[in-house]
Amino acid sequence: MGNFSRQVRLSSALLKRLQSRRRDFAAVNVSSSRSFTTTEGHRPTIVHKRSVDILHDPWFNKGTAFTMTERDRLDLRGLLPPNVSSHEQQIERFMADLKRLELSARDGPSDPYSLAKWRILNRLHDRNETMYYKVLIDNIEEYAPIVYTPTVGLVCQKYSGLFRRPRGMYFSAQDRGEMMSMVYNWPADQVDMIVVTDGGRILGLGDLGVQGIGIAIGKLDLYVAAAGINPQRVLPVMIDVGTNNEQLLKDPMYLGLQEHRLDGEEYIAVIDEFMEAVFTRWPHVIVQFEDFQSKWAFKLLQRYRKEYRMFNDDVQGTAGVALAGLLGAVRAQGRPMIDFPKMKIVVAGAGSAGIGVLNAARKTMSRMLGDTEVAFESARSQFWVVDANGLVTEARENIDPDARSFARKVKEIARQGLTEGASLAEVVQQVKPDVLLGLSAVGGLFSKKVLEALRDSTSTRPAIFAMSNPTKNAECTPEEAFSIVGDNIIFGSGSPFSHVDLGNGHVGHCNQANNMFLFPGIGLGTLLSGSKIVSDGMLQAAAECLAEYMTEEEVLQGIVYPPISRIRDITKEVAAAVIQEAIEEDLVEGYREMDARELQRLNKDEIKAYIQNNMWSPEYAKVVYKKD
Fold it and tell me: Is 148 a catalytic residue?
C-alpha cells in the first residue's frame, strides 16, 4: 500500500507536504503513545426512573442481566425471573429464537425472510438497545443488509403498516413556527448525529413520504454499529412536507400528511426552520441529509454546508465510495495511478448521485494534472453522461444546470460517430470505455447489448459498477457481467450480491460499493475533530483512505472494496484520515476533554487511539438511580 499511498494521496495533507509545510505528527512513537480517558467506556449510567419504568425503557433495560444488587437498587426484585443471565446467555437465547421465529414472523407467503428478520430485530430494538447493537455488530455481514439496503427499502414501502412505536422525530409542514420549541420534546440533552430525510426519493423507490423515516433509522443503526456513536445521542428525523405519491395520498393507512408536497420558497422555509431549531438546541450536532430529490439535494447542500456541520450522503458519500472504486479499478488494471486522468468513463444516470460522482472524479483528475483551470477543463473530456434521454450534449434543450458542465461538445462527439441522445449501447460501442458506471436506479439497464459492447473496451480489465439500490434497481447482476463481458473484469454493486463461480477454482468477486464504508467515518471524524464544517478536503481524504485500504494482492484479484466484516476498523481508519485532514486545514476545535492544541499534537497512531476510546461498544454499564 505504500507505493499506492504516495501516488494517490491528493488531499490538502499531501499538497501541503509537497509545498514543504509538513506537520510533525511523530513527536511520540507508538511504544510510548500517551493514554486517553475512555469517554465511551464503563462509566455508571445515572437514571431517574425505577421499577417497571426502567424495564420499559430500551435505553437502560438489561432484562434478565440486571444483577441482584441493581435489582434492589432499582426496585426490580420480583419483577424478573430470579436467575441472572450473562450478556452471552441473552444473545444465545435470542439467536436461537431468531432462527426459530423467522418462519412464524412472516406476514403471509409474500413476506420475504429478510422482512421477517427485520421485524424480529426491531422488536429487540424496542426493548433492549444494548443487546440489539451487540447482535448487529457481532453479525454485521448478515444483518447490515437487513437494517440497511436492500431490506430497508421494503421496510419504507410498508412502514405505515409496520409502525408499532415511534423512533425519532417528525417535523411537518403543519409545524411551521413551532419547531424551535418542538426540539426540546426530545429527551436527550446531547445529540451527536442526525440523519434527516423528507422521503422524496428513497433509494430508487421514489416518493415514499413520511414512510422514508425508515432510511434515517437504518443509517443511524450503522452509525452506532460501525462508528460507535452512542445510540442515546443519535436522532432520526422525518420532515413531512407532503407527498406526490398518488397511492399514498389515497391510502387510509398512510401515517403522513395527505397533501401534495410543498415546493419553492415554502419548502425551503420549512427546512430552514428545522436547521435553525436543531442547531440552536444542539450546536455541535452533525446533520446528514438523506434521499432528498435531486432538485433539492444540491441546492440544500450549497445552502447549508458553509454554515452548519452537515453533508449529503447521496451526493458526497456516494461520490466518495465510487471514487474509491474508480481508483481501485486503476490499481486492478495494473496501471500507475497517474493514469487515472486517462480513464474513459461512461456514466449512466445524471441525478444527484451521478453528478456527485462526476464532480468528485473530475476534481481528483484535475489535482493529478496540476490543479489548474486547464487541468479541470481537460478532465471533463474523460466522461460521457447518459440519462433517460440518451447521451447528454450541448445540443440538449433545457439541460439540467448540474449536468451542463459534463455535456459533450457536438463536433467532438460527431468525430466519435455519436449524436445528441445516443443510446447507452451506442455510446459504449463507440467510446470503448475503461469504466461503465451505473447510477440510474433503472434495474437491468446494462442489457446484454450494452455488456456485449463493453467487450471491445480498450482496457485490459474493464470495470462495471452497478451502483443503484435496492437490489431490483441494480443495472445488472454480477452473473450477467462476468458471463457476457468475460472473467477478467472488475465488478461492483450498490447492494450485496454473491461472488460468481467462474469454474476451475476461479472466483468472480462482487464488490459491494456500499456508502457505509464512508459515511460513518466521515461523521465520526468530523465529530471528534470539532470541525464546524465538513470540507471537500475531509471528504476527499475519506475516499482516498478507502481506496488505500485494500492490499496490492487483494486489488490484483479484483477486490477493490473490503468485506463488511471489517467495518469498525475501516471506519476508524476513515475517521483518522478525516481528522488529519481537518488538522491540515486548521479546522479542528477539539472534542470534550481534547482541545484543539492537544489534538494537533497527536501523531497518526495516537489519533487512532483517541478515536478508539471514543467509540461506544454495546456493553452493559452499571445503572445507578438518582432522584430528580
Answer: yes
Q: How confident is the model at residue 59 (pLDDT cuts 50, 70, 90)?
A: very high
User: What pLDDT, in 10s, does the model give residues 217-237?
Assistant: 999 999 999 999 999 999 999
Give the whole-angstrom CA distance, residue 409 versus residue 560: 33
C-alpha cell at 550: 485494500
Q: Give ∠ CA 204-207-211 in degrees, rounded to 5.
A: 100
C-alpha cell at 171: 417535523
Q: Are the C-beta atoms of 251 and 160 separated by less than 8 Å?
A: yes
Q: End-to-end distance of the chain based on CA atoms, in angstroms?
A: 55
Give which of 519, 525, 510, 513 is closest to 577, Cα–Cα: 525
Cβ atoms of residues 255 and 242 within 8 Å: no
CA trace torsion 20, 23, 26, 28 (10° rounding):
150
Please say if the pLDDT value at position 15 is more than 80.
no
For 20-51, the DSSP string reads T------SS-GGGPPP---TTSSPPEEES--T
Which of 132, 133, 143, 148 does the annotation list as catalytic?
148
Distance CA 326, CA 611 (A): 28
506-508 vs 594-595, strand pairing mode: unpaired
DSSP state, residue 418: -
Cβ 207 vs Cβ 477: under 8 Å: no
DSSP letter string over 155-173? HHHTHHHH--S--SEEEEG
Taking the mean position of all CA atoms in its chain, how far away is CA 518?
Answer: 6
What pLDDT is recorded for position 103? 65
**What 3-state class would DSSP assign to 416?**
coil
pLDDT greater at residue 115 or residue 270: 270
The CA-atom distances, in angstroms, between 553 and each of 229, 256, 346, 487, 559 are 33, 51, 27, 18, 9
Is pTM beyond 0.90? Reply is no
The Cα angle at residue 540 between residues 539 and 545, in degrees rounded to 5: 100
Q: How far is C-alpha 392 from the chain's CA centre?
A: 28
**Packing angle between helix 213-227 and helix 129-138, nearest 10 degrees?**
70
Residue 128, Ramachandran bin (φ over 0: left; ψ between -120 and 50: alpha; else beta): beta
Grid coordinates representing 194?
Answer: 442526525
Catalytic hit among 62, 134, 219, 363: 219
Judge whether 219 counts as a catalytic residue: yes
Longest dimension (CA), the chain: 83
Contact predicate 322/467, CB 8 Å: yes
Q: Average per-residue pLDDT in the chain?
A: 90
Q: Is residue 83 packed enough to be buried (19+ CB in 10 Å), middle (13-18) or exposed (0-12)?
A: exposed
- Residue 300's contacts (CB-CB under 8 Å, 6 or more residues apart) are 271, 289, 292, 312
CB of 295 within 8 A of CB of 283?
A: no
Cell numbers describing residue 569 = 476498523
- Cα 31 from chain centre: 34
Q: Read off the pLDDT of each residue in 110-129 and give the average, rounded to a whole number.
A: 87
Closest CA to 557 of 486, 465, 485, 491: 491
Q: Are 356 and 305 in contact (CB under 8 A)?
A: no
* DSSP structure string for 355-393: HHHHHHHHHHHHHHTTSSHHHHHHHHTTEEEEETTEE-B
DSSP annotation of 261: P
